[in-house]
Amino acid sequence: MSLGKVPLWTYRASSCSNPRPLEFFFCPQPYLKQTVDVKTNLKGALFLGQSVCQYRLKPVAAFSSEETHPTSQEIGTLKRGNNFERWDSMTAKFAGAANLPFLLLQLPQIILNARNLLSGNKSALLAVPWLGMLTGLLGNLSLLSYFIKKRETEAVVVQTLGVVSMYVVILQLAIAEAMPLPHFFVTSIVVASGLILNCMKYFYLLNPKIWTFWEDFITIGGFSALPQVMWSTFVPYVPNTIFPGMISFVTAVTYVLMARMGKLSDEATNFLGLVSGWTATLLFMWMPVSQMWTNFLNSDNIRGLSAVSMLLAMIGNGLMIPRALFIRDLMWFTGSSWACVFYGWGNLMCLYCFNCISREFFLAATLGFVVSIGITLWRDTQAHGHSSLVTSLKELVFSP
Question: Membrane-spanning regions, if any (predicted)?
Fold first, then answer.
């Protein structure tokens, strides 16, 4: 195809499995910003395990072959494409940078536990709730599988780091006999199996049937753990029982078996595919609720909270919000935003109310959080070519 007399075409290719649009621009020199061979890119999509039928090519702008210069509207389209690519790259870097605050968040606990173990002070590790760490580990493992399916490499690295760091803490608790050894051995098998299977899935080395079995396993595990953790938070105000977890376990097993036997509708089967991700997200969303409930019952515990740890949690989750909004992932956006507001900023507010941190520290953290959210919405609106900040949020909730 000769570009000398070819009208300017803008093709938008969007995948059903990955909502990030890709812009391909064809225009005559000297306005040729980027020349991409569509067939080559569709072959690349096939290499990534996606079918050609998932892509829709739609010409959205053109000018006649007699014209030699694009209009201002067409130049604006090119600029929006450049903004889209830059913001795509920046959000991916932000998500990758979240590894640093999350690493620093777990590192002090790991170092403190190691010092106590070396000094023979095993009783100090009893203050770390192994059940809460196990719940967080299961959540990280479930989200790791979720992001591997979406091919979000930066989020995969974050979740892998979370799995490894929490397992190190659990290993320390097992050495200190603060966690039952049978539970530790089962946890070790699950973690090792999960990391191996996810790694094989990422590099397209795993049999689909094995991956389906793993997805069913984490769906049942997450759906069973969530109600039990929520119930246990309010003990002793409610009876100490495993009844909620048992009911959820039976319900999840029944639902999964019916799905695999083809007894469910397509809508119900698709919903099952989202259960593991949403249960993992809800587990993380419940952690700040549990912490704030503990603060309400015993205000003395607030002084034991680390303001730096809460700030790091807010920064780490905040760095992932732009990427979640950009790819229109409601689950990821909800979990990260909730953690920022309630686990990070919410606990900082509690610390400020009880005079554990200065006003300047709290106001600076609040201002930084509000400004970052505003910039995220503004840049996302520009990247997608919208005229209103609300449009991005509408697309996030109702899909574009």
Answer: 124-148, 155-175, 181-205, 241-259, 271-289, 301-320, 332-355, 361-378
First to last CA, the chain: 32
pTM of the model: 0.72
Q: Which two tokens stand for residue 163?
A: 């799995």
Domain boundary among 71, 88, 105: 88
DSSP per-residue codes, 274-289: HHHHHHHHHHHHHHHH
List, in sequence order, the alpha helices (H) in the chain.
38-47, 72-97, 99-118, 130-150, 153-175, 181-202, 208-233, 243-260, 266-297, 307-326, 330-338, 346-353, 359-383, 389-398
User: How many structural domains comprise the chain?
Assistant: 2
Strands 22-26 and 9-13: what pairing? antiparallel
Q: How far apart are alpha carbons 385 and 83 in whole angstroms?
A: 9
CB 302 within 8 A of CB 351: yes
Contacts 24+ apart (CB under 8 A), 259-267: 260/216
Per residue in 296-341, pLDDT tens? 777 666 666 678 888 998 999 999 999 999 999 999 999 899 989 9
For 59, residues 6+ apart whose C-beta sits below 8 A from its C-beta are 9, 10, 11
C-alpha closest to that of 215 among 226, 235, 201: 201
Segment of 55-69, 253-267, 331-345, 361-375 carrying the highest mean pLDDT: 361-375
Lowest mean pLDDT among 42-56, 72-86, 213-227, 385-399: 42-56
93 part of a folded domain: no
Q: What is the pLDDT of residue 140?
A: 86
Residue 170 tokens, joined: 């659990």
Choose one of 88, 107, 123: the last residue of a domain.
88
Question: Taking a C-beta distance cutoff of 8 angstroms, is the pair 175, 117 a contact?
Answer: yes
Q: How distant is the alpha carbon of residue 261 from its chain centre?
A: 31
> Prior bond to 208 cis, omega within 30?
no
Query: In 3-state terms, what secondary structure has residue 74?
Result: helix
Q: Which domain holds residue 62?
A: 9-88
Amino acid, single-letter form, for residue 95: A
- The residues, ordered by sequence, that sit 6+ positions from 313 with a Cβ below 8 Å of its Cβ are 101, 105, 339, 343, 344
Helix (H) or strand (E) holding 9: strand 9-13
Match 């389906």 to its residue by tokens.
212
| Eight-class DSSP state of 65 | T
